[in-house]
């Protein structure tokens, strides 16, 4: 597959994960547990890692949450970013606790002296700060100047925060410019990508629930990533954060940037389909969620003899249905024809064999 030319950016490091400079686009997600609940937060971090997240983010809204950070860090399977708004003392506490990164907008934490303290402490700890501008919390003067949430308003807001850090000699910066409108966020990231070489954390924010949110996210991130823009991403769904991580991984995989897990091909069905292919494909897809291949594999579930054998034979493991059953292929070779009643079990058995044989 043709490689996409990535925009060259500076590198920042979150724990062991390098972001920018052509490093693989990493997947982040944010816990929705009460951070002060150490056990629940750790359980979700493990689940996020299993779903494909490489960096975790925790809200630190109060001192109780900040107090829990050392215990979480001791057992976290992922490097962790503290998400802080307004209170610079919480930022200093998160740095002292050993968090691997901060998300804080320096323009929102008060005096220049507070900004200086946070910048100096982060620099001494060797951790980056993400400036994260969101269309829902732009300053009033920029909303007035730009007549609402526009790409230029987002960019100007981000550059204000960046400048405050640079004024303190701090340059380990990532930038996010999130809006819930795909055209606005794409425009904003394109613009800032031309103005700076800081690494970009990309995402469409507040996309909604699973179906619409997935469409919106894939559109926004897909456009940017195909243009070589974006060094790390976060999917934002009103759903289980594990779905965010999995969707982020899927998007990178489908773009060929980081092939991962299963590539799933199934046909739309038509008047030639004789078996209940929709239900069969859904059952296969659900079963695949519990089987993680050691390397990316392609699965095809097809409805008839027109395109079925070709797609099924092209996949690592494929199924081409006929009148009362289906022909299973493995690496292009016919395994056998199985009755409809046995088809699902026979197919999943072959899938499992394929993955366990590596
Ligand atoms: S593979 Fe066959 S059943 Fe499926 S859409 Fe194509 S022609 Fe129709």
Write a structural description.
The longest helix has 17 residues, at 210-226. It contains twelve helices and 15 strands. The mean pLDDT is 95. Helix 1 packs parallel to helix 9 and helix 3 packs parallel to helix 4 (112-125). The strands form three sheets. It has an eight-stranded parallel sheet with strand order 8-7-6-5-4-3-10-9. Strands 11-12-13-14-15 form a five-stranded mixed sheet, sandwiched between helices. It is α/β, with parallel strands linked by helices and 358 residues long. It folds into two domains: 12-254, Dihydropteroate synthase-like (TIM Barrel, Alpha-Beta Barrel), CATH 3.20.20.20; 262-356, Sulfite Reductase Hemoprotein, domain 1 (2-Layer Sandwich), CATH 3.30.413.10. It has helices at 38-51, 63-75, 88-97, 112-125, 140-146, 151-166, 182-195, 210-226, 241-254, 277-288, 308-314, 340-356, and strands at 12-14, 17-19, 26-30, 55-59, 80-83, 101-103, 129-134, 173-178, 201-202, 232-234, 262-266, 297-302, 317-321, 325-330, 333-339. The protein binds iron/sulfur cluster (SF4). The site of iron/sulfur cluster has 12 residues, from loops.
């Amino acid at each position: 597959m043709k490689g996409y030319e990535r925009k060259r950016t500076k590198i920042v490091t979150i724990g062991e994960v390098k972001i920018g400079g052509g490093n693989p686009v990493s997947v982040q997600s944010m816990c929705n547990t009460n951070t002060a609940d150490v056990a629940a937060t750790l359980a979700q971090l493990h689940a996020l890692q299993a779903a494909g997240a490489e960096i975790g983010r925790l809200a630190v809204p109060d001192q109780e949450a900040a107090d829990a950070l050392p215990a979480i860090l001791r057992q976290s399977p992922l490097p962790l970013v503290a998400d802080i708004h307004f209170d610079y003392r919480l930022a200093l506490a998160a740095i002292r606790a050993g968090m691997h990164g901060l998300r804080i907008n320096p323009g929102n934490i008060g005096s220049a002296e507070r900004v200086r303290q946070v910048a100096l402490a982060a620099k001494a700890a060797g951790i980056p700060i993400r400036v994260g501008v969101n269309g829902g919390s732009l300053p009033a003067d920029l909303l007035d100047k730009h007549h609402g949430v526009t790409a230029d308003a987002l960019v100007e807001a981000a550059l204000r925060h960046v400048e405050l850090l640079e004024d303190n000699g701090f340059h380990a910066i990532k930038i996010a410019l999130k809006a819930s409108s795909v055209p606005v966020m794409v425009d904003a990231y394109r613009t800032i990508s031309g103005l700076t070489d800081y690494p970009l954390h990309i995402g469409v924010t507040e996309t909604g629930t699973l179906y619409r949110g997935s469409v919106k996210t894939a559109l926004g991130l897909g456009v940017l990533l195909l243009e070589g823009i974006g060094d790390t991403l976060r999917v934002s769904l009103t759903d289980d954060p594990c779905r965010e991580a999995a969707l982020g991984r899927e998007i990178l995989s489908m773009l060929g940037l980081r092939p991962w897990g299963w590539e799933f091909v199934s046909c739309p069905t038509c008047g030639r389909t004789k078996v209940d292919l929709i239900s069969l494909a859904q059952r296969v897809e659900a079963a695949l969620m519990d089987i993680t291949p050691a390397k990316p594999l392609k699965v095809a579930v097809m409805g008839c003899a027109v395109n079925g054998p070709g797609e099924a034979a092209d996949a690592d493991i494929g199924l081409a249905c006929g009148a009362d059953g289906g022909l299973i292929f493995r690496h292009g070779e016919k395994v056998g024809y199985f009755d409809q009643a046995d088809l699902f079990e026979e197919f999943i058995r072959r899938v499992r064999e394929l993955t366990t044989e590596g």
